[in-house]
Amino acid sequence: MPASLSNPNSSVRRLLAVIRELLGNPSSGFGLIVISILLLTALVAPLLAPYDPNIVNLDNVLQPPNAAHWFGTDELGRDIMSRIIYGSRISLTIITIVSVIVGPVGLLVGTTAGYFGGWYDTVMMRITDIFLSFPSLILSLAFVAALGAGLENAIIAIGLTAWPPIARLARAETLTFRNADYISASRMQGASSLRIILKSIVPMCMPSVLVRITLSMASVILTAAGLGFLGLGAQPPLPEWGAMIAIGRRYMLDNWWLVAFPGGAILLVSLAFNLLGDGLRDALDPKQH
C-alpha cells in the first residue's frame, strides 16, 4: 500500500492541503461556503425561520416581498422564506441519504467488477449500462411509480438511479492498478480478495469517487425537485422546493416570487455543488501536484 495511505500524519496534511486549495480557489470557495450555509440553515432552521412554515394565514395571501415577509407569501398566506429555510432540511436529507446509498453501492460494484473481471465484470457492466441508458429523472419516475409517491420513496428511487456513474468510475480506477506491485505483494502474502479490495483498492478509488459524488449532488437536487414538481416527491404541506414551484406556477404570471425564490435556491445549491466538485477535482488531481 502506498505510504500516503498508511501514514495518518501524511493523510492529515493532505486533507489540510486540499481544504486550503478549496478555500484559495474563488469558485470552489464559493461552493463550499454555500454548502456550509445550507448545512447550518438546515440545522438551525427553527431559529432562522421567522414564521412556522405550515401556518395558514388567509389574511396574508399572495403578499409580495415586504418588510414582514422578505420573500412574500404563497396562496395560503404562508411565509415563503420560512418554507425555503425548512426546505433546506429536506434537501440536505436527500443529499445525505442518497450519498450513503450511491457511494458504497457504486464502489462495491465498480471495484469488484474491475478486480475480478471475466463474466462477473461483463454482467455487472451490462446492468450498469442499462441504468445509464435512461435519463435519471425518467428512471426515477419509473421507480417512484412502482413504489408510490412520497419523500421516502423518492429518495430510494434517486439512490437506485445515481450509482451507475460511480460504479463506472470505480471500475476504471481499479483496472489501472489491480496489477500494481503492492497488490501483487498482498496476494503473495495470502491476503484474501476481500481484504485487498477493502484495504488497498477502495482507498485508491476514494478521491475520484468523492469528486464524482459531489458533482452528482447537483443532479440529485434537480431530480428531487423534478419529482416534487410532478407531485411524486415530498407531499404537501412539506416545504420541498420543487413542490413549491409546482404550486406557484399557477400564479407565477402575477406573483413571480412564488417560483423565483424556490427556483433560486435550487439553482444556487446545484451551482455550489458543481463548483465544489470542480475544485475537488483540481485539488485531488495528482497532475496538479
TrEMBL record:
- InterPro entries from the xrefs? BP-dependent_transpt_permease, MetI-like, MetI-like_sf, OppC_N
> What does the similarity note say?
Belongs to the binding-protein-dependent transport system permease family.
Q: Give the way it sits in the membrane.
A: Multi-pass membrane protein
Matches recorded under SUPFAM superfamilies: MetI-like
Out of the domains of life, which is the source?
Bacteria
| Membrane-spanning ranges | 30-49, 90-117, 137-163, 209-235, 255-277
Quote the protein name from its UniProt record. ABC transporter permease
**All copies of domain ABC transmembrane type-1, residue ranges:** 88-277
The biological processes this protein is annotated with in GO are:
peptide transport; protein transport; transmembrane transport
Q: Name one Pfam family in it.
A: BPD_transp_1
Please tell me where this protein is predominantly located: membrane
Enumerate the subcellular locations listed in this protein's record, separating them with semicolons: Cell membrane
Name a GO CC annotation attached to this entry.
plasma membrane
Keywords from the UniProt entry: Cell membrane, Membrane, Peptide transport, Protein transport, Transmembrane, Transmembrane helix, Transport
- Annotated coiled-coil segments of the chain: none
Q: Which organism's genome codes for this protein?
A: Aliirhizobium smilacinae
